Amino acid sequence: DADVTQTPRNRITKTGKRIMLECSQTKGHDRMYWYRQDPGLGLRLIYYSFDVKDINKGEISDGYSVSRQAQAKFSLSLESAIPNQTALYFCATREGTEAFFGQGTRLTVV
Amino acid sequence: AQSVSQHNHHVILSEAASLELGCNYSYGGTVNLFWYVQYPGQHLQLLLKYFSGDPLVKGIKGFEAEFIKSKFSFNLRKPSVQWSDTAEYFCAVFRDDKIIFGKGTRLHILP
After folding, report:
1. In B6-63, where do the E strands start and end?
2. CB-CB: which of B51, B90, B103 is closest to A40?
3. Does residue B20 register a pLDDT over 90?
4. Does the distance separating the beta carbons of B51 and A45 come in below 8 Å?
């Protein structure tokens, strides 16, 4: 089993729809992160969390929300999806100098 | 603003050529520095990391990187690239509980 699992792997949704991307980890790490990757822009931080009661905005949090349901689960929601949220989304965990990344979710908003 | 900069956005090399990808960061104090690789359609994989000690770090697949504190640099090198090195490469810094990435360098190796 993968250390960090993202579901779904691919999703096409319509503008205005609500969508949730899920991330679960088996590493037991407290720190979890959501990034989006766009060509030429690298990975940009959306939200990060240190535990279920500690949620922090990253550099591009507008239009997104998150929920840390448990230490192992960190979900990203788009309340009303728009086309410029089409991107590859990655979840990550971190402990000290070790980081682990999910396989990514490719989201297309049409 | 504090950042991680990768100077080369797209690099094209022939097999057996030498590779150097630049990375500069603008954070003071202690930093943990990383290079990740992303093969087409895959997630990020760690190539190597530096957090203390010998500034010349060796990673997987023949890659190495040199930390030069005075230049705020952590350049990635490989003496002889292979077609299978075609991928996107990201420099990253662990800082203030965040993982901050450069914009990436897309490397294309011609067979």
Report:
1. 10-14, 19-21, 24-25, 32-38, 45-50, 56-58
2. B103
3. yes
4. no
